[in-house]
Protein: 2-oxoglutarate and iron-dependent oxygenase domain-containing protein
Amino acid sequence: MERIPSVNLEDFISGDQNRKQKFIDEIGKAYEEIGFVALKGHFLNDALLDSLYTEVKNFFTLPIDAKRKYEIEGIGGQRGYVSFGKESAKGKKEGDLKEFWHFGQYVDDDPERAKEYPENVDVKELPEFNSVGKETYAMLEKTAKYVLRALALYLDLEETYFDDYIHNGNSILRPIHYPPINSEPKNAVRAAAHGDINLITLLMGAQGRGLQVQNHKQEWIDAIAEPDELMINVGDMLSRHTNNKLKSTIHRVVNPPRELWGTSRYSIPFFMHPISEMKLDVLESCIDDENPKQFDDITAGEFLNERLIELGLKK
Ligand SMILES: O=C(O)CCC(=O)C(=O)O
Ligand SMILES: [Fe+2]
Structure:
């Protein structure tokens, strides 16, 4: 496969059975092959996206001392600010050339669950940043819910199979700033090759060059979205659960050519996580003689913990 297929979520929610099935088939096939789609028909409108980008730029433009106030020790970077160079891809010692922010789940109907998560961090200087982050979180969570419903049907599960696992799940909205590059980076890139940890990732801001995805011939292909599209890819949790029927594809963000070193990149992934006790054990329906069980049983919480340590975010 040489390019990322494009799908439209409106087909799935149209109420027309043929269009719904078309969406399920297209996204299922894309995820078996390349693990990525570009998706139109999501729930983010232009006004929300405009204010999101404005606020995200406002935040990263704050002086470093102001940003550092929001970098909180002891929570593995799960909320608030993570400064430049802190995170490195699994197995890589150089830090990625990025700084980022984390918005986490807003729990208002389950006090026990609320206790499990660190509190969201409010940026005092930018009240709009906090509210637009919350609104975007809700809209991406809604988009992801329908995508997972389509995947459940593709996997011959109940349509709502994932619903209870993602309600109040440990999802993260991560605005990322890749700053201008001032001098030849030694071995560091904006984001080194990696697979995402979570169930699925919904990515805003893949409209410019930079993001590349590895196809099954090990070739890097550019993943560039249209202005009205989100990139949505399978993460390692969903790959494990489906015995790698759905592929968590390795991707990276390359440094721009020298003439563009002076420009920032802003991208905003939403990492859709389930609640920590969801079992990621391989689904029976994904095991047969040709596809023996490839992964040990593990819960989402245990798996996340392992990976945060590998990323250098948790001790
Ligand atoms: O910045 C991008 O376009 C992609 C970032 C990414 O892959 C990630 O944060 O997991
Ligand atoms: Fe990623």
